[in-house]
Amino acid sequence: MDKKTIIRTLEKIALYMELQGENPFKISAFRKAAQVLELDARSLAEMDNILSLKGIGTATGAVIEDLMNKEQSNLLLELQNTVPSGLLPMLKIPGLGGKKIAKLYKELQIDSIDALKEACETKKVQSLAGFAAKTEEKILAEIANLQSKPERTAVWQLEPIVDMIERKLLNIPTIEKFSVAGSYRRVKEASKDIDFIIGTNSPQEVREELLNVLPIIKIIAAGDTKVSVTLAVENEIDADFRIVELHQYASALNHFTGSKDHNIKMRQIAKDLGKKISEYGVELEDGTVQHFESEKAFYAYFDLPYIPPTVREDGSEFSKLDQLPSLVTLDDIKGDFHMHTTWSDGAHSIEEMVEACRAKGYSHMVITDHSDYLKVANGLSKERLLRQIETIYELQAKYTDIELFAGSEMDILPDGSLDFEDEVLQQLDFVIASIHSSFSQPQEKIMERLFNAIKNPHVHMIAHPTGRIIEQRDGYNPDVPTLIEWAKEYGKILELNANPYRLDLKTDYLKLAKEASVPIAINTDAHHIDQLKYMDIGVRYAQKAWLHKESIVNTWTLEKFKQFIKK
DNA sequence: GCCGTTTTCGGCCCGACTGTTTTCAGTCG
How many helices (H) and strands (E) does chain A have? Predict the structure, then answer.
């Protein structure tokens, strides 16, 4: 049995145990064992002694060995015999955990969401100790809600909601400081909810104001330091607001940025020093609480460098601290190499795009409008492209502080041919090849198209290599590891498309590209000057894959970039 | 269930909120 399946089985065992109302530490021991396997880069065959791994003991080790040798786990089979599988989905109902579900099953033989619904409707549930009429109503409401609310919301859907909330918070005068936190701040592709930290001297007023100004469908909780609501926005989503005093702000921001695993690791570090981390500060052995000016000061207190939110993930970041200074940052970015103008489907003129890039302090940039094939995007014919090249070069005369390059985002056609002949391509400084059509072709055909582009000596880069839209469509399903091999062999750039719709390539592939030393360009693909800001999310997304400055084409000097594209 | 150069037993990250309670259990992040 492969490693992934074994990891999932351990997690499944934990779920079943949860439903039995098992000891929470026993349950987390199985989750921990799954995580230990996951974090270990080796394959199962390469691990000669599973039991030597910290976190895997006799019981979890036995399960792993069962799965390796007999393809099944006796423990899981036993659990599945005692716990009906219909209980699993009940864990999705907010307010219900393992213990309550176990009780419902034991006392009322409720073994599915449907059975639970009926028992609530016939008021059987309120007869149980620990349950009452209010709980019954809440369960019914949550069951009804279960289908309507998506489990995760994509980062590009969250962005406008976060903007809206930030505008509201700016208008509440009693709020001194605020920041989005949670997985959004860590640039996860999708999140379950939105978290905000608010620093204020008047928590009561802020709480009232929040409830007044936010578009609220439902108040989930409204305590002294925490307001939880469901927001009335296009795709309804929950938002948590944590209200703290200013001296607690840095600790609260750190705590609610997470991840959970990162926090647990930090707390273990503190505990070894006899200290206790909470969202309010660090409690010393004598009971006094240490506060921090910033997250940086918080980490420094534990002799750690500042760990950016983007890499606060599974805990493995603590073993890679020496790499932090090499990570790409927005300050390292010297140019943007994929953007559109009114010549095709962009909103601004070439000159307006240049001015916007100058304002960002870039030293060079590439204009890359669509090519002939993409009629819906007003793609440029050969003649228009040649005229555009001239226009760009003429415009260059106006500027000494930024160098303009003429490029194209050229389509790779469904039959695998390229939209421009070589004699046109060789007049361009920078050629991007992209797939925008016939996504459903078999992988073999898609790869043939990509190979035709990669092997063309005039092509410099493949844009948005998989064509995915986060949480919405998978793209054209190329064999990315092979694509990375080809890029390495032919010396081509792969793009990390920074538009939050795409973030393509995704992290796992970026890591592969890094291992293969394939250069990555982070590009905004801007169709409007406002979209040039996506460089920021692109860079932070790249940090999640631990991409170093030198592997990012946008950090190269103008001279190095010129050398690369002229070769 | 797992762990240990202060521990082989007694901890395991820590606190807020709700709903059920008369001091707390369960859930959540």
Answer: 21, 17
